[in-house]
Amino acid sequence: MVELGCLWAPRRWSLHVKLDGMNPGGSSKDRAALRIIDDALADGRLRPGGLVVESSSGNMGLGLAIVCASYGIPFLCIVDPHTTRQNIALMRAYGATVEVVTVEDPVVKSYLPTRLARVRQVLAEQPGAFWPNQYENPSGVAAHYDGTGPEIARQVGGFPDWLFIAVGTCATIQGTARWLKDQGAHTRIVGVDSVGSVVLGGPAARRKIPGIGSAQKSSLLDLSLLDHAVHVEEDAAIAWCRRLARTEAVLAGGSSGCVLAAIDQLSDRFADGDVVVGLLPDRGSRYMDLIFDDGAPDGHG
Length: 301
Ligand SMILES: Cc1ncc(COP(=O)(O)O)c(C=O)c1O
Prior knowledge:
Layout: E1 2-4, E2 14-19, H1 29-42, E3 52-55, H2 59-71, E4 75-79, H3 85-93, E5 97-100, H4 112-125, H5 138-156, E6 162-166, H6 171-182, E7 188-194, E8 228-232, H7 234-248, H8 254-266, E9 275-280, H9 288-291
Parallel strand pairs: 2-9, 3-4, 4-5, 6-7, 6-9, 7-8
Antiparallel strand pairs: 1-2
Helix pairs in contact: 1-2, 1-5, 2-3, 5-6, 7-8
Bound molecules: pyridoxal-5'-phosphate.
Pyridoxal-5'-phosphate is lined by residues 27-29, 59, 166-173, 211-212, 253, 255, 281-282.
């Protein structure tokens, strides 16, 4: 957790960002991946040596690749053409097998149904294969309930007034928000989605920023935990990533830009002295072509 002093200055509220890109695998997903595998080993759904197969746009794949490598478990990751070459190379470096699906579902305009169909095929063909199923696995939520929630409170010295979290599978926001509400925290929870994602409502459309949003709703999310839901244009998110890098020297990924854009959208509601926390899920160095290349919006203004 670091406090940022330059963005939106001068201002009367404080801004703290949790840099989950500093995790060993480079994202929030490390925490969920470890808990999912530990829980599955503990209750026998996964036996040592059994194959783990998952559909991932990158970060969960990397988290699982690290956990599986350290436990000596083979891992097959199903990705799509949006996954960066670097993420694929990293997973392979950790010993994972990576398979890229190339056919998009024509109705929802997403690769997700194709990726999931391939996972089901592998499960049918390989007895003993384990599917973490990050979109439905409550262990991911538990990881953030036990980890992210208490850490945020500890790191800012109490419950923040506002907490902005990007949504994908919704494990992060569900676990963190549930923990805060269970403590009686007054924190206003803001779910951050990208335009074109259906997680927090709205029509499906083509999106390019990985990690945030989905073409399907989350079964993990209790929407009543959210005080606000914000949809962010992807170009605005990219502009915020660039601004963050140039003013605060923090290089973060596209969903982090969405979080900052959402903070900007709600900033006129913050009271003097409010403690605002944004969770930045991963690092920008993995998205140089998408976010920091010359053709992207430059973030001026
Ligand atoms: C880049 C990125 N954005 C957003 C999220 C949202 O997380 P979740 O799938 O828990 O909703 C994640 C999760 O790690 C992520 O890696």
